[in-house]
Amino acid sequence: MTILFAALSTVFYKYARIPEIEADKKVRQYFVLTLLLIPGVIFLAFYHLIFSQMISSSNINFETYKILDISIFSVAGFISAILLVILPLFYLLKILGSARHINIGITIASILTSMVFLAAIYSTNPGTWIPLTIFYLIMTLTLLKAVRIKIGSFSMTVIFSLLYGLYSLYFIIILSEVRTTENLKIQAVSLSAENDPEAELLFIDMWPVISKDTILAGLMQIDYFGKDDEEKIKHYLQVNYFNGYWSNFYFNIVLCRDDQSLSVGPANEVVENCFGFFNERIRLDGHKITGTGFYFVDNQGGRSFYLGRLYYRTSAAVLNGLFIELYSDINFFYPGYSELLLDKKYHGYTGIKDYSFAKYINGELVLRTEDFPYDKTDAAYLDKTTDFRLFRTEGFKHILYKNGNSTIMITRPELSFGDIIISFAYIFAFVLIFSNIFLLLMRKVSLKRPNVLNFRQKLQLSFIGILLFSFILIGIVVAYLTVNQFHSKHYENIREKLNSVYVELDSRLSSEKQIISDLRNNDYSSLNELLIKLSNTFNTDINLYDLTGLLVATSRPEIFSRNLSSRRINNIAYINLRDLTKSEYIQKEMIGSLEYVSAYVPFFGSDNRVLAYLNLPYFRMQSVLAREISNLIVAIINFTLLLIVITMSLAVFISGRLTSPLTMLGEGLASVGVGRKSEHLVYRGSDEIGELVKQYNTMVDEIEESTHKLANSEREYAWREMAKQIAHEIKNPLTPMKLNVQQLFKSWSDSAPGFDKLLERFTRNQIEYIDNLSSIATAFSSFAKMPGNNPVEINLLDQIRTTLELFKNTDNVKFSVNWPHESKVMIYADREHLNSVFANLIKNGIQSIPPGKEGSINVDLGIKSDKVVVSISDNGSGIPEVLQRKLFTPNFTTKSSGMGLGLSITKKYIENANGRIWFESEADKGSVFFVELPLIYTVEKLG
């Protein structure tokens, strides 16, 4: 959809015609331009609505400083946003481009009025309309300046990237903050509850089956329970009922008779009646799950705790009780607990994995994650007036939610200035690259005739290319070396932990003859329990394999109970330890998509015989390691990008400074010409450019001196030639005038009859000769004086119409005009000169038509880019090829009368208007004269 909008916007910009705005009524100009700008305001408001919804209502991450969270959807979101903003951008560019002829004050007034309309749309949200209207005002004023002074396309993309980067950065920060806060509020509400709704639904479905399970009832038909009976029943329940989702809970059972005592707690406190203990617990804190024998037990330190009870009467009339305890595992809060081990309920906690989290029960801290130093009680954080509280302390933002006796706090660091700068750098770079690619696709790029870059652009591209390559290479090398060093320290840390665990196990197990899972003593009830204690001490997972490679004990049994990892030792590690007799082997292994480092060593007994193989799979801290490496790489990337943006800006600035003397020198050389006054260049440096400037100034002096000499010489030659021509032209009528006077005198002396008629004819002839001499004098005077140029803005169509009016009654000549689609074609020229040019060309065309032939004069006007071309064709006798190259030469004419100055004066007038004139002619078929003039702007016809 965004591509379609961008395509339609491009088509509109390239091909749409904007109606004419009358230039003679300022009030009308203001209202019409304002009305034309209002749709642009609506387009911008529509765009902002979509963009803000993309940020606040989607799961796409637009916070570019979180570079590791940037996905393909983030890139697609940014591309969609840029394509959408093309609609208001191109519309406003088109409107302001068509209003170039309107007074700047009126245009700004219309922009300000339309800005008020934009503010009215978002009047209820000051946090939106203030920055949005500022963005609109700056953007429209920039576009206005661009269309009036013709800013280059690359400069425009830089300005657009800067403005759009600031706009999007502001709203991304604001709206992302609102979205994150709302999401964390939901997380806080979820975390405040101890009960697990999904677990309770499973209990409801499970109860009818487990309560009528005959196999379970048969297993409970025992008068006195032993350790094996407990293990058998527990295994049966785990396999048939408490698997899958229940792996997120610690599972335990208690088997006892109605009259049996029970040892509870770390101190093995003895309770007289087992049934009485559990019934009292349910009475005080239990909440029955409807339709089941399971109870939710409250006040369990922030964890979900469920207790189930089933009673079975044996054949000896003994009542046996099966008490099932399930309490949620909170180890997923610990660093390194793989999300592969979390079921879907706990995936919600991953939303706060990058934040600090605390839970208080009855005001006491029961859970805490990450690094923020929470108080032991929640008294300092509570606000008695509200359950929700948002507050800041020491660079951190806190969300607090109070729900009964439970208090939840989620803490995150505040956005730093460095994060803002990095975000802007990413957005600016992305928008600049994408907008330039889009412009390239808009243009019809020709591979045969590539655009030629000037020296400054080549220098800038060279600087930028070298810096870009250098910093990217440096960034890659620094990242590679740093990560390698990080891994080396990580491996050292693993070896230290491996040695420490080995020493602890050696003090406890080295005297054993064989390592089996049932090993126990007064300190631990099983080998698994021992490994779990060591795991918590050394913050690493521990596995022990027997000599055949089978798992004996582990500190992370859920990895194997969920079949995420094989119970056999890794084959490669086994071969290296057993067959190659290596004293240590470290390699990378995989669990699902989680890659981690695993270290192996053989464990020796006191007799120096291998008892088992000790393995430290380091996935508990692998996520911490990955995060630290990721943060390191992100810091390097961010720093490199910031350096690239800064150095590229400096490169553009420095290259501009370096090439400015060359630009000055180029402008000076461009001003050098015969008849032009060239000034000396001023350059204070004494480098190579200073030498060039010195040589240039010397050349200017020499050219000026040569120009004076040449001008004097040419002037003398031209006046000599002109004097000859004038003498010839004046001498031609003098001879017949002399003969006429002599003839008249003779007739008077002879008193010839009809003297009155002779006198009348004589007078008429003399007047004709005198008029001829007067026209020669006038033409010469015009050529000699060449009146000064007084250019103004002129509607070329009006001038052509005025000239045609002078010749419309010419006998035997038909005029035809091919008018353009525009109602106004504005140029900058002298009005009188323009009248003289077209009058002279049309008159020459009429005079070239042979007597007796019906004449045809065709006037055609066409617009080519920033030029307007007027062609005047006739069906006259044409111009012979041998005479064509002399046609614009002074004193040359193909007619029997005149001095031949008309076309040379016409050419001079056209050149004064920065235009050019040329012709095409074919003998006996006619001629076409072309006049090309610079175009200021055009106005389309209404409708």
Task: Lay out the secondary structure.
Layout lengths: L1 H14 L10 H32 L14 H27 L5 H18 L4 H24 L3 H40 L4 H14 L3 H6 L7 H14 L8 E9 L4 E3 L4 E3 L2 H12 E3 L5 E4 L7 E9 L5 E10 L27 E6 L2 E6 L18 E6 L2 E8 L2 E8 L3 H26 L12 H55 L17 H12 L4 E3 L5 E4 L2 H5 L9 H9 L5 E7 L2 E11 L5 E8 L4 H50 L16 H62 L5 H31 L5 E5 H12 L5 E6 L3 E9 H17 L7 E10 L2 E8 L6 H4 L17 H11 L3 E7 L3 E15 L3
Parallel strand pairs: 19-21
Antiparallel strand pairs: 1-7, 2-3, 4-5, 5-6, 6-7, 8-9, 8-12, 10-11, 11-12, 13-14, 13-17, 15-16, 16-17, 18-20, 20-24, 21-22, 22-24, 23-24
Tell me what you see in this structure:
Helix 5 packs antiparallel against helix 6. The longest helix is centred in the last third of the chain and has 62 residues, at 688-749. 24% of the residues are buried. Strand 16 and strand 17 form a beta hairpin. The protein is an alpha+beta fold and 943 residues long. The chain has 22 helices and 24 strands. Strands 18, 19, 20, 21, 22, 23 and 24 form a seven-stranded mixed beta sheet that branches.
Shape: elongated
**Main sheet makeup:** 7 strands, mixed
Helix count, per DSSP?
Answer: 22
Strand content: 15-25%
Q: What's the total number of strands?
A: 24
Structural class: alpha+beta
Radius of gyration, taken over Cα atoms and rounded to an integer in Å: 49 Å
N- and C-termini, Cα separation: 30 Å
Helicity range of the residues? Answer: 40-55%
Average of per-residue pLDDT values: 79
In terms of per-residue confidence, which ranges show pLDDT below 50 for 5 or more consecutive residues?
331-339, 342-350, 445-450, 894-900
